[in-house]
UniProtKB/TrEMBL annotation:
The chain crosses the membrane at residues 108-132, 144-164, 176-195, 234-252, 264-284, 339-366, 378-398, 419-438, 444-462, 492-510, 516-536. The keyword rRNA-binding does not apply. Residues 37-88 are annotated as: Disordered. CDD domains: MFS_Tpo1_MDR_like. The keyword Cell cycle does not apply. PROSITE patterns: MFS (PS50850). Residues 110-540 form the Major facilitator superfamily (MFS) profile domain. Its main location: membrane. This is MFS multidrug transporter. SUPFAM superfamilies: MFS general substrate transporter. It comes from Blastomyces gilchristii (strain SLH14081) (Blastomyces dermatitidis). It is found in: Membrane.
Amino acid sequence: MNAANVAAFINQMIYDKLFRLLTAHLTSPNQVLSKKKKLKKLKKMAPSNPPKGDVEKSVTAVQESRSEDKEAEENQTNSQWDQDELLVDWDGPDDPKNPLNWSRFRKWAVALLTSLGGLVTLMSGAMLAPALDAIAKDLNTSPGTTNMCLSIFVLAFAFGPMVLAPMTEIFGRRKVWILCSTWYVLWNGVCGFANSQGLMLSARLLAGLGASAEFAVTNPVLGDTWRPEERGRSFAIATFIPLLGPAIGPILGGVITNSVGWRWLFWVLSIFDAILTVAAFWIFPECYEQLLLHRKAMKLRKETGREYHTRWDIHNQPLTQKLKRSVARPVWMLATQPIIQLVSLFLAYNFGTLYFVLTSFASIWITQYHQSVSASGLHYIALVIGSTIGAQLGAALTDRLWAYLKKRAGGETAPEYRIPLMIPGSIVIPISLFWYGWTAETKQKWIVVDVAIAMFNFGVIMSTHSQQQYVMEAYRGYVASASAASQFLRSIFAFAFPLFAPALFARLGYGWGHSVLAFIFLGLGIPSPFILWKFGAKLRAKGKPMP
């Protein structure tokens, strides 16, 4: 059976049956749409800004009645009319300067550039795994300290986006991406020259801060440049590329370390990312709508002397106030938005489990199957296969599902339309954890273990993509801040889970060790998509307004 037949079969099974069953019985998004329609009716009943002819009639009526109250109303109406005249927006729905109207070539060029930057940064975290013994020997450090070279880089991904992602909502996506990429290139290169554990850990932390912005900017850029009905495929492919990093990194790391030494791990990545950074000056134009319209308003002010403005006030505020609000926003969202809290917990456990599994993956082949280090690295290809299948199926199904649910709702949309694809991933992850742990424990044939780990990565990709797209749809005006808030716990768990993996396996073994993770996921992961589908709109409504 070829790939096309496999995709068609799964599409028939999942899309036509499971998704139709969900949309037939879980009605929360339809309730959301009903509320939206009521709000639209209320808005139509509310007074709107009158056209010029109505204003003139109002002025005549005021002059005839000579009422002070009506004179005040006239002044207020005229003031509102003047303000609307000075409101800056795109020049129609087909304005070529609107990033949503860019050519598909430009959209894909920007998406691939930012996703390749994310690939480099995530490879930096995993690429060191085969070289840890060599680094420990050259720097004369303990195994625990050397493992911190891996963990501290991931830890930077928790705190970096909380500050750097909101900066893109002030200074723009392009400027922050280029500056942080340059920062990463410099400090990652320093790691290759390190001769002490202090310099290595410091440089890794600083490199991780720059890398975190490269990874964090990808989602906001996709939200800026792709419309909801076409975003699923672009999102699946563009976010799939960075997630190959943890799988490809150890393979390339082993080859480079054995060929030219561990220091070239850092230099090769810095060279590649430097090429991407230079290319960004030509390939990556600014795409943040608020900033682009602000620049347009400033240009009109300069040309006419009139107070042109956008519907957002943040760019007219003092820089210090903008910085305070933007930096505080991800923390505020994590503390006050129930949706962000639920998604954060799910993503955190997803990625914590992923890094937990990656920590033990190579050792299973060495200790259980007595393979060499280089041979054990080849099994990471199974992770790549699982990621590829998950991304491609997600790309094929998510836009079709969005269009189907939109048509069924009479043209209305809701963020919950991204949720159903969480279900396959949420089911596959615990099953594959049981499968992987016990087949490795009982030393089944290597292909059985590799199929299990491929299934696990398939589930992680499917569920993660669905969650991230849901956050993007729910917080369109603050995608960067919402993404940073939802990914904070994810990076904390990815940092912490590998630290207790060796002790857990030493006490319980691979079978029960992975079973513990699977049982926890059964209680956390399985209910999550149904909670979001049924109560997502209510949870979003309970969140406090953005600062």
